[in-house]
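Anyone? Bumping this.
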Amino acid sequence: MAKHALRATGVTQKFGSFTALRNVSFELEEGEVHCLAGENGCGKSTLIKVINGVNIPEPGAQISFHHDPAAARVFPHDAKRHGVHVIWQDLALFPDLSVAENICFDRFVAQPFGGRNQAASRQMAEEVIARIGIRLDPDARLGDLSIAKRQLVAICRVLAANARIIFMDEPTASLTRKETQALLDIVRKLSSEGISIVFVSHRLAEVLDVCSRVTVLKDGSLVGTYPTKGMTQKRLSELMTGMELSEQQRQPKTFTDTVLELRNLSRPGEYEDISFSLHKGEILGITGLMGSGRTELALSLFGMTRPAGGEIVLEGKPVRFASNHEAIDAGIAYVSEDRLNLGLDQTQSIVKNTAATVLDDLAEPTFWLSPSRVRALCDHWIDQLKTKVSNPELPVNSLSGGNQQRIVLAKWLATNPKVLILDAPTVGVDVGAKAGIFRIARDLAEQGMAIILITDEASEVHAHADRVLILREGRIREELSPHDIEEEALEGLINA
Amino acid sequence: MRATLSTWSGDRIELSAMVLFLFASIALFGILAPQFLSGGIFRSIAFQLPELGLLTLAMFIPIIAGGLNLAVTFTANICALAAAFFVKSFMMEAGITALPVALLIGMGTGFLIGVATGAMVAYVGAHPILVTLGAMIFLRGLGELLTRGGDISGLPDSFKTLGHESILGVPIPMLVFLLAVAVCLYIMQFTKLGFRIHMVGSNPKAALYSGINVNRVLVWVYGLSGAFAGLAGIIMLARFNSVRIGHGESYLLITILACFLAGANPFGGFGRVLPLAVGLMSLQVIASGMNLMGASQHLATAAWGGFLILVMILRAPFQSKR
Amino acid sequence: MPKMLASPEGVLSALILALCILLSFATDSFLSLQNLFDLLNNQSVNIIFAVGLVVVLIAGGIDISFSVAASVVQYVTVVLLMQLGGGNWALGLLLAGATGIALGLVNALFIHRFRIVSIIVTIGTFNVFFGLLMYLSRGRSLYGIPDWLYDRITILSIPMERGSATLYLPVLAMLVMVAATWFILSKTGLGRQIYGFGSNPDAARRSGISIAWIQAFAYGWLGLCAGIAGLMQAHIVREVVPNALYGRELDILAAVVLGGTVLGGGRGTVLGAVLGVVLLALIQNGLNLLGITPFAFKMIVGAVILIAITASNADRLLPEVLKSRKEA
């Protein structure tokens, strides 16, 4: 029986009339890698905040660390004493400071009047970096590093502060598979040193094999804690959403009307020699790891970047886009992978976001932009896509991830596109809402739209695409039909 | 604040608050100084407000676009200078036709200066505060060089009409200001350009990905700002019958103050024209009222600053914590 | 070494050096000790302002009110001293420093306690400070200032063929403030906290930094600098003119940003701020010695700033537009 690092029972947290956590239990062994799973808003973050002492739970909770007696709450200094650290998704690092300074930042906080002592910070940083066996330049400016490297800096930082229990919030969300594997190796190493690690995620395939147990929360309640042995992605999704997800593959069909054709499209350093054709009513899956050139290719199709060689042929005519404005006019729509920053203007209203792409049409034939016409457009699409909106004049960030993505779709469907590019359309969208997004995509294809689905989730292309292109290092390596291959085999090809 | 402001009701609250503020200040001075409620004071307000008001419109548009135009006052001076040079050289005997020509030259010069500034903000990509600060110092220097620090005066009498006459009891400068408010309102709320300015102001990257030509919008923003500043310059020229570089310099920070007072978001994207116009009138009422009671313009300036901070404190509870 | 040259400080140093060489050949008087000492005497006040402002900018804020705050400090200090019968340097510095810090803390209070954006707060306090000062002083200058403040204090005098080259007290004050600011920013944990806070305020908050203390320090330190600069300015001009420093804030801001400090926080150095002020001063001095009409000075300075902005951004066009805006 391993010693427990943390044992919490009966944790309840109320915010006014809203119950964020209802009688939740959570247990963590020393050196264990544990997965805390649940959809957005299920109470994962609230539980972490109770454990690191930020939130005070309702009376009745019993929380104990290691051998300490249980207490009804955690004080921040207790959490610190037991080495509880959280690496939030945004990492909370300082882009303008050096790597070493980021790693040692907590020392500067503890001793504002102590000297900065560059040599000591550097040495401390180097020791931690060596401990987890990675290559990092302690003098580099953090802002110049990739996300993956910053993730490592964040880990070094908590290790430098003697972490014993580390919560990692969506650590793999913006990493490529290779980077994820490297991260998991480090996690295994830390676990063997007796450090307990909790992955908090709603995208779990890649972490399941490193975790020994998974705890699932749903709507603030504990669903259960399960061993990961034998746990599948599908079963986990069902536990998280409480519904059976059965994705029907698309019926095999032959498509004839070519809408878009790429001939030897190249852009050095991004993608090479890409040729394919896309037909009316077809959903073409383009998959590959982050950095394989999938998004870069999409940006060229959308007119954001200029290909260096090759040809784009749209409905039989060669096109060259000087800007994305021209691409939109030509009938290309692009749902960005970064919904929070690029897909939507989070602070502006739902109405404004919906209308932003079609201002010229709305203002025809003058400059006059009639507010009622703008509103009618928005109402139309809210209705069409069955979006849950209480008031379209509210900022778009008042909506859930799934409904936000519907607004993104609305603003692009309003342009009446011929080709719709969906780049990672389900990032940050709950499992339940994902199905809704794909239902819309399938309906659109049914009506004759040509759709490019870019994703690195094998299950998504396997279920929803008619044809799959696998990109690796900027080139098309495989072209296959999802009917001819099992999902696991497809996953293997993506990661190869 | 963004959450509240961007809703319809939020806009109404902002406008009602400003109207309430206006009536409260009129009532206050009406009680403190009985002679305040005579017609004369409103006439004097109507003559004084337009300069500050037009400059504030010139500041407002860049603020909505997420920037700032620190060059508005000196742009106004340069535009007035350009118009004055032209009229004095070619149109001394042209009578009333000199006015539209001067307006055209003034606003055109302002537009060009603004377009140059906007191009720097857009294509060079430096922070707008920096670019317009550089432009401000440059324009002031240009004006000093052209005037050798002196005045340019002695314009035709028709300029006096523009600066000092009234139509139906309303001073002409005030009519010009109201017209400018209407134009600004139209552009900002009811045109594609205005829509785009709001989108670019709150998130330029998302605007770009929606197919909005962000750089072109920015050039327009500063171009419009320059044109409004040019109009302000012509009104000042008509009011004083002279141009001096530095005229209206002290208005610069007041224009920013007025925009924030009326609820414009300092990070761009949100703010309405009508609360701004009403807010400006309140500021002028305070200044004129204090003046009537024997306090100097400086005390009014202090009161304006105090009001800004007070209003922001009152507004704070409605702001979402970002 | 190449890294050093590519930094704003490196570029500015190179420019300053080139300008110095150019001016020493083009004019007789530039390289004279008298001219250089005069330059230092005249720019000390600006440099003190600049190193104070750089702290606020690095912490992610902006302050418009500091130069009128310095005028308030001058006035208050001199009036109080005259009522106390004159006082002395110790008392003068104490009073000036305390008043300056108090005015800075007023800004910090509104920014921190009421969460108002710094530019709004300081535009508000700018108007309050200046309006009240002009109202209460009725715009009158104070010519009667204490003797110790009136008599210039020489810290170094080198006899020359004609007269002598002299450095006055403000240069010493400037050196002290520059050294102190540099020490705090680059050599202490507090300095790292300030950079960290400006770089990512949210992360700083979560790592347990006292935000109130950082804000109070940044605006208080600028207040202190403004106080000392105000007193030194009175010492140099031997009178107190309430609107003498009005409008100086934007010139200082331009110089500091020229020195590589980024609006939005996290980046900037004391050295860069000093070099920014020095470069602009050298240009004006050079134009003067070259006999160019003073009416053209501002235009040339403005052009230099615009060119510098363009040059420093030339390599990163559009994406940077968006980035700088987001940071702001």
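Late reply, but here is one note on the structure posted above: Chain A has a mean pLDDT of 86.
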